[in-house]
Design a protein that fits this description.
single chain; Chalcone isomerase; alpha+beta; binds heme C
């Protein structure tokens, strides 16, 4: 009887350990995407002002944003059907927009969003890793689950390798 009880407890412990391991395996791991130091010297792709709730992205992306691409991605961006090589990086730099005397001027930085191409590492999200840094602060990572928070929306842009921005000469 004593022996049976020990075996049963042992089995229960194994099951508990397995369940714990599974729970950790399913939780999205914190990304290791680096803060894109130097992006202000990259190619400026485009800018946009989202200033009114009439725009569906106003709550999340209201303000003035500028999009940048690094040298590796800049080549592909100029193609008609871009296919970005690994190492391509896009930055979405979002600042507050303040209306001053009839002009929208930049306020403080709200968030710096990043997309990094690594087709093997990020195969589940179109080959892109997604991260966002709150306030543009390298220590304040803001993405918990890139698949639902970011890729779900970018997925619609499959034809342009999941990138919305297009090159305007
Ligand atoms: C609801 C849709 C939506 C979600 C969710 C979304 N994005 Fe985007 N993203 C856009 C749109 C639209 C643009 C293009 C903006 C423009 O044209 O100026 C964009 C542009 C970008 C760009 C510039 C490259 C490109 O595709 O043009 C980056 C980088 C980016 N997003 C990162 C992220 C990250 C990181 C997340 C998750 C935290 C995220 N996005 C979530 C819609 C979305």
């Amino acid at each position: 009887m004593q022996k049976e009880r020990t075996v049963w407890l042992g089995a229960a412990a194994v099951v508990a350990a397995a369940v714990t391991a599974l729970a950790f395996a399913q939780a999205p791991a914190a990304s290791t995407i680096q803060f894109p130091a130097g992006y202000r010297n990259w190619t400026h792709v485009k800018s946009m002002v989202i200033h009114d709730k009439a725009h569906p992205l106003f709550d999340a992306f209201g303000g003035i944003h500028h999009v940048y691409v690094n040298e590796r991605g800049a080549q592909a961006l100029r193609q008609e059907n871009p296919k970005y090589p690994d190492g391509s990086i896009f930055v979405f730099d979002l600042l507050e927009a303040r209306l001053e005397s009839g002009a929208y001027v930049e306020g403080s930085r709200k968030v710096l969003a990043v997309m990094v191409k690594d087709s093997r590492k990020y195969a589940a999200t179109g080959g892109w890793g997604f991260e966002a840094f709150a306030g543009g602060d390298p220590s304040r990572r803001a993405v918990q689950d890139a698949a639902t928070e970011c890729f779900q929306c970018h997925a619609a842009q499959k034809a342009t390798d999941y990138v919305f921005s297009k090159w305007r000469p």
